[in-house]
């Protein structure tokens, strides 16, 4: 950009100013740590505070999709995750509404505020998935929805008068609910994850883990991991996107031990040892949702919200959306007439960071 240059400069003079492409350094640049006692304080570290203030002002989008057969506890789990009624539970639906003839996609938005930070949360429900007699290709409407959101974003991005902040409706995370059968994954589970893991961040979870014994749960988890591996299905966080050794160590633990998270959901509170806890009351006692001895809900919550939320958004932007964008621009002929992107020079999408504060 010509920021700071006098406007009267000629093109020739301008071209002199264009710097030669810088050769790549033979060795990676080493960070220099500044000794504040010697040089005085510069203030580089205030960027964190500046980013915090900006995010506080604008908030951020997070879009989470839930997929799995009817009644597996999808709505209950998202309500448990966000400690609010962000998804309608099955009991409040009438029967006709409950079993749609095809997979329907329903997106409901909420604003959740905590500690002064606003999250614009959208829960995307997929009623009807896996509920038909013939479930062949029932992942297609879901893939279509995900791609439509990428297309919307791309159209906004190439718009001449584009918005300062492009509304982000892209799916950042897809929780896939596996039925707690204790046997193996169903062909439908494999089919769905095989197709969709290339377009969205899939996090598999074993639903209603309270219906299994500890041994059954541990065996089932191992079997599911093995089956996913044998079928070449990658789930989030994918190995190839680990950025450094720290990421790798942290994510390997999740991939090899926690996945798929065996969870229990509930929006009811009970009194246990003088404390109010979210739980499920059974004749044998209370299953505490956030107690790690009872289930892995707390691990999933920490993973999705407390440690990997920003990464989920970045992988969506830098990997899945980028793949869609590149493909779309390559086979431009596939666009409807008049809506092609031909002739439009696309602005470069920054590799990182993805827009956090929107
Ligand atoms: N045992 C057990 N039951 C659960 C759990 N989570 C939810 N349920 C119960 O399962 C039933 C269905 O829960 P929902 O959350 O509505 O399930 P859903 O997957 O959203 O159902 P659809 O919207 O119809 O697809 C309700 O009676 C819940 O109370 C769980 O972790 N364990
Ligand atoms: Mg539901």
UniProtKB/TrEMBL annotation:
InterPro entries the UniProt entry points to: G_SEPTIN_dom (IPR030379), P-loop_NTPase (IPR027417), Septin (IPR016491), Septin3 (IPR008114)
GO molecular function, one term: GTP binding
Keywords in alphabetical order: Cytoplasm, Cytoskeleton, GTP-binding, Nucleotide-binding
Gene Ontology cellular component list: cytoskeleton
Subunit structure: Septins polymerize into heterooligomeric protein complexes that form filaments, and can associate with cellular membranes, actin filaments and microtubules. GTPase activity is required for filament formation.
Family statement: Belongs to the TRAFAC class TrmE-Era-EngA-EngB-Septin-like GTPase superfamily. Septin GTPase family.
Name of the molecule in the record: Septin
Gene: SEPT3
């Amino acid at each position: 950009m010509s920021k700071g240059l006098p406007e009267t400069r000629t093109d020739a003079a301008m071209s002199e100013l264009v710097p030669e492409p810088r050769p790549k350094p033979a060795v990676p640049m080493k960070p220099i740590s500044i000794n504040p006692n010697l040089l005085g304080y510069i203030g580089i570290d205030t960027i964190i505070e500046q980013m915090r203030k900006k995010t506080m002002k604008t908030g951020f989008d997070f879009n989470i999709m839930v997929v799995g057969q009817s009644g597996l506890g999808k709505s209950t789990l998202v309500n448990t995750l966000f400690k609010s009624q962000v998804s309608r539970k099955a009991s409040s639906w009438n029967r006709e509404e409950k079993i749609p003839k095809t997979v329907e996609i329903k997106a409901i938005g909420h604003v959740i505020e905590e500690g002064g930070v606003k999250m614009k949360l959208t829960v995307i429900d997929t009623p009807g998935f896996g509920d038909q007699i013939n479930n062949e290709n029932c992942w297609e409407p879901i893939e279509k929805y995900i791609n439509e959101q990428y297309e919307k974003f791309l159209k906004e991005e190439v718009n001449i008068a584009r918005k300062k902040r492009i509304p982000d409706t892209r799916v950042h995370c897809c929780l896939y609910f596996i039925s707690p059968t204790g046997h193996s994954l169903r062909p439908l589970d494999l089919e769905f994850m095989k197709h969709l893991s290339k377009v969205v961040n899939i996090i598999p979870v074993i639903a209603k883990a309270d219906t299994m014994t500890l041994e059954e749960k541990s065996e089932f988890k191992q079997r599911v991991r093995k089956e996913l591996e044998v079928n070449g299905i990658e789930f989030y966080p994918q190995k190839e996107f680990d950025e450094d050794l720290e990421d790798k160590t942290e994510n390997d633990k999740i991939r090899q031990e926690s996945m798929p998270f065996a969870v229990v959901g509930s929006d009811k509170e009970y009194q246990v040892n003088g404390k109010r806890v979210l739980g499920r009351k059974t004749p044998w006692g209370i299953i505490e949702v956030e107690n790690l001895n009872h289930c892995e809900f707390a691990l999933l919550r920490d993973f999705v919200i407390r440690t990997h939320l920003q990464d989920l958004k970045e992988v969506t932007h830098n990997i899945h959306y980028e793949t869609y964008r590149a493909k779309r621009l390559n086979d431009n002929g596939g666009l409807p007439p008049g809506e092609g992107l031909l002739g439009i020079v696309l602005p470069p999408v920054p590799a990182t960071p993805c827009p956090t504060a929107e």
